[in-house]
Amino acid sequence: MEKATERLETKAGASVPAGDATGMMNDLMTAFESFKQENDDRLAVLEKRGNVDVLSEDKLNRINAFLDSQKAAIDRKAMVQARPALEGGANRGGGDEYKDAFSAYVKRGEEKALSVGSNPDGGYLVPDETETEIARLLRDVSPIRAIAGVRQVSSSVYKKPVSIAGPAVGWVGETAARPQTASQTLAEIAYPTMELYAMPAATSSFLDDAAVDVGQWIAEEVNAAFAEQETTAFVSGNGTNKPRGFLDETMVAESAWSWGNLGYVATGETDSFPDGAESDVLIDLVYALKAGYRQNASWVMNRRTQAAIRKLKDTDGNYIWQPSAQAGGRASLMGFDLVEAEDMPDIAANATAIAFGDFRRGYLIVDRQGVNVLRDPFSSKPYVLFYTTKRVGGGVADYDAIKLLKFAVS
Q1: Do β-strands 194-198 and 383-396 pair in parallel, antiparallel, or remain unpaired?
Q2: pLDDT tens digits, residue range 285-312?
Q3: For residue 138, which of 220, 59, 247 has the smallest C-alpha distance?
Q4: Rounded to 5 degrees, what are φ and ψ at 264?
Q5: How far apart are CA 256 and CA 205, in angstroms?
Q6: 210: Cβ contacts below 8 Å, ≥ 6 apart
């Protein structure tokens, strides 16, 4: 076991090699077994001596880092293998007229036959295939988008009616009077779409290459920028020129929950899990969510919180965190999928570092149709800039579908 751990330490300190998915998954599972053994040894020493050896703690952190990097490498490989070609390269036969015209615009600035996709504010709509690929890549990379509800609209604001309280009902006898019942209480939530932009750059020689798939290139270039900005807004955005994140909502103790607020469960400790009852507070959070929401619930936390969670066991001594058994899958915590979002706060005093809920019902993302590209060959010569914009909105749709764990006494 010691030799195996040393090999994992070497891997953790280096870049993750590119290999086949099966081999990478085997390395991940082996690393997790070594992690459990190392953590068990650490807990035994802690119980016996009252403190932990620094070298042992460092070794555990190295394996923890390897688990994170290996999982990220597996996800990247699965995403690349699933990626379709948009234009099929230079040898494609026939081709859509607008798509060919858009490619000519991106490469050479030719605007012939593009008037149908023109934007009055400047720029042109990307072909449908490219817009679809951008949406698919965002779903693969943006953690909140992958689990939230998504609507596509053609207007600048999406309005959604929600039922806060249903109509009153009751039992009556066969011949008894049927008194009029109270009507249901409705509220309207509005989701304005805000402009999100990226500005990839290319050289003229790159654009002159006949083999360059400009649709794929634009999708890949804007993907990372869009995903990073989106995720930040979906988690903690204040709603000003960006979507409103679920952590920007008013939070109240679960016992005092009401519509319009997100309920939280307190850990009972200011900046940590309670000693000896670490998993208990997670169980409390799970059952703060109603049964109808738990069926499709997910955990959301950042990687540092996940690293702390990996060390926890249930009352039977089993680790409550488990790695995914397949490439592209998610780790699980207490049987529920775990989603890693770096914009979630770290474990600290009064921080809501963990969210749990049915985000498909609890958080709504609104995409306005169309992604625009404006070619700019003048601002940063010799590079050609492509000002690429899309409009996105978002906010909580069901305040009862998301619960938070707050590191506080109450």
Answers
A1: antiparallel
A2: 999 999 999 999 999 999 999 999 999 9
A3: 220
A4: -130, 155
A5: 62
A6: 90
pLDDT digits (tens, 9 = 90+) for 332-365: 999 999 999 999 999 999 999 999 999 999 999 9
Burial zone of 84 (CB within 10 Å; 0-12 exposed, 13-18 middle, 19+ buried): exposed
Q: What is the number of domains present in the chain?
A: 2
Rounded distance between C-alpha atoms, residue 43 and residue 51, angstroms: 9
- Please give the residue range of the domain that contains residue 65: 2-81
Q: Are residues 283 and 231 in the same domain?
A: yes
Do 193 and 54 lie in one domain? The reply is: no
- Smallest CA-to-CA distance from 290 within 178, 403, 154, 380 is with 403
175 lies in some domain: no
Which residues are CB-neighbours of 267 under 8 A, at least 6 positions away?
273, 274, 281, 405, 406, 407, 408
Pair (245, 365) in one structural domain: yes
- Tell whether 146 and 281 lie within a shared domain: yes
pTM metric for this prediction: 0.78
Same domain for 206 and 297?
yes
CA dist., res. 7 & res. 1, Å (int) = 10
